[in-house]
Amino acid sequence: MSSTGMSNSTSISFSSAQRLVFTFLLALLIMVASVLSSDTAMPTQNMSHKERTELRDEARDMFYHAYRAYMENAYPADELMPLSCKGRYRGVTPSRGDMDDILGNFSMTLVDTLDTLVLLGDFTEFEHAVKLVIRDVQFDSDIIVSVFETNIRMVGGLLSAHILSEYLQKQVDVMHWYKGELLEMARELGYRLLPAFNTSTGIPHARVNLRNGMKDPMLKKSRETCTACAGTILLEFAALSRLTGDPIFEVRAHAAMDALWKLRHRGSDLMGTVLNVHSGDWVRRDSGVGAGIDSYYEYLFKSYVLLGDDKYLARFNRHYNAVMKYVSEGPMLLDVLMHRPHAKSRNFMDSLLAFWPGLQVLSGDLKPAVQTHEMLYQVMQMHNLIPEAFTVDFQIHWGQHHLRPEFIESTYFLYRATGDHHYLQVGKRALKTLQQYAKVSCGYAAVNDVRTGKHEDRMDSFVLSETFKYLFLLFSEPQDLIINVDEFVFTTEAHLLPLSIAQLGNATFSFRQSDENNVLDFMRTCPSSNKLFPEKVRKPLRNFITGSCPRTSSGKRLSALDFQASNADHLRAVYDMGITMVSVGDRSQGKAKSHEEGEMGLQFMQEMLELTKIQSMNQLAQLQAVAYATDEKLQDWTALMAGPSHFSPELIGEQFVEGDVILANPLRACGEKLNQVEDGADDARGKVLVAERGDCTFVSKARLAQKAGAVALIVCDNVPGSSGETQPMFAMSGDGTDDVLIPVVFMYNVEFSKLAAVMKRYEHPLRVRIMQMVEFKRWQLAKEGRQNGTTTSAQKPDREL
Ligand code: DMJ
């Protein structure tokens, strides 16, 4: 065995694995340290009434800057393009692909914005805008739109504006001409969405043609939708039914929710993110709280609040417990697979999950809400704006920033629940940042990359309906507002639906409402801040640094095993031992209080490293190894890291697949004729096939490889320079059909290049073995032990699949 080869490969894989694992373990510490540093640098000060009023007015000005830019340069288009300063029209403006499914040429930004005008107290502009919508907006267009987006932005916007128009008629004595036109428009639009619900499961299609329903030929193959897309209908459809007296909408939306609930994983209680509306099969089994699933959870809880049906609370609670058990990792929320919930399926988070703390506040679970929010605040401070996705060590994964509302929304709910001025300070920072990085002469522009600050020609309608609305609400006092917002539920698009809608229910919807009063009480009354956590969570951390909080010492040395990052005494003890937890940008050195405590600190760090090693073994479970032997006796193995797939059998424990490696022909393995040259030289039977990523899906490559007789498939990345050392490893997705029986793994370009170089150098066919990385490590450690005579119990992984 070439020991150099072995140790090289070990160090390559271990260092990356350790980096991954370290981030898991240390991110908690870094997070705590970051909280410390932010609190130390800027202790929360009460915000004066004057400053708060100024910020409220600034939020209002921001809204008008964007609103006027849209009205003067883009209306009646769906969106403003703030850099070109003109409207974005479907079918006219160059297409952005699927993203344009939100556009229906129905003046979306104005409809989405109507109720914000009421909250701002601008009844004159509201009345004018309602007249414009009634006059200009129509839905009879041959356009395919997203059912979810049309529902939350358009139906929700129309309903909320209708409710507020009637409210203003009664309370402010204006708009007497209004005769329910907006409700009629919402009903018409609701009917245009209904054909999407004609599926065997009752779960709606993702898209529908506004004029032709599902008859559009482009929709023939339609079958996949996301969990959030299908599960974010009920609030609007129930309100539509209650207000119009037509039960069809609510009936369909309940049925979709029931069908979704049946698809949960019975073991974990988790949901995936993409499913087939006809078969009910899962297409993506990743489960988190961000993109693809976010508002499904939100609507379970809020449906209970709005409609009073206990079953939605029970379902929410089941999912919530599952999320807190498997997805929640300290302050972080990391996707797992619904059917393998103990292993994380990715090591980054998306910015959509920033709504989660707000939902936790509403459901009464404040402590984790505070922690996740604080983490997000750190991410914001590190990058100025929260990037669309960021890794567990808070580095940028996707650099865009779309001016999304979720973080501000959670900040608002946390402030409402706690009264802690920290959240006003956070809101101030968010507001100033938007002013600095997003304001342009014609509105506010999304940021293409938070590292460069480069703008994108995009201002989504939610900037006006949510982002500025929540900012304004955060800095407003209740007496500034014409309505009591506690009597409303905010939809996922921040449209206001009154709790009184429950009373409009007819005999079709008589729910179990035993706890309804409790729920309403909770929504109406902000819990007293002294019962709540934020200060309790954050203050000990501050005290730990400032030393103002006397520590109760047991005289015992704190061991790494017992260490809890959330325990203030532990943090203090670690600090006294001279260990400083470093937040990015803060490289200050720790100094032990005494020689003894310094020794204890060293011991502590050693234990921590040991623990990290053990943890690394567990975290490695998902990582696959492509190991190769270059000696004839197949003794010396070198492993390169690879990622698993969701659609191929899992290699469990010591199982592995072995074969000579061969390139696919054609390399991308997309055509029917795979590895079929006449002389049979590229015969794939019994071989481990390598195909390049691209041109067709992972799973179709796998099917072709299987058909060609390969025993395993390695898909190598087509992006030069990509590497598992710098990029998160991920699991390849399938299409919901479990017909792939051979293991399939993914290698980034740098790792594959190493394998390719050996393949080139090596005269004989190169033998490779696909197995779990953790098993490879165990195998090698055991071999090393045997060679050194230190262990006799080492097992060779000999269970060929
Ligand atoms: C909004 O349209 C809604 O909040 C939706 O639920 C998620 N995406 C955007 C905002 O980011």
From TrEMBL:
Entry superkingdom: Eukaryota
Signal peptide: 1-37
GO biological process entries: carbohydrate metabolic process; endoplasmic reticulum mannose trimming; response to unfolded protein
Species of origin: Drosophila madeirensis
Domain PA: 657-747
Cofactor: Ca(2+)
Localisation: Endoplasmic reticulum
Keyword annotations of the record: Calcium, Endoplasmic reticulum, Glycoprotein, Glycosidase, Hydrolase, Metal-binding, Signal, Unfolded protein response
Entry annotated with the keyword Glycoprotein: yes
Record SUPFAM superfamilies: PA domain, Seven-hairpin glycosidases
Pfam families for the chain: Glyco_hydro_47, PA
The protein's name: alpha-1,2-Mannosidase
Residue sites binding Ca(2+) per the record: T492
Major site of localization recorded for this protein: endoplasmic reticulum
InterPro entries for the chain: 6hp_glycosidase-like_sf, EDEM1/2/3, Glyco_hydro_47, PA_dom_sf, PA_domain, Seven-hairpin_glycosidases
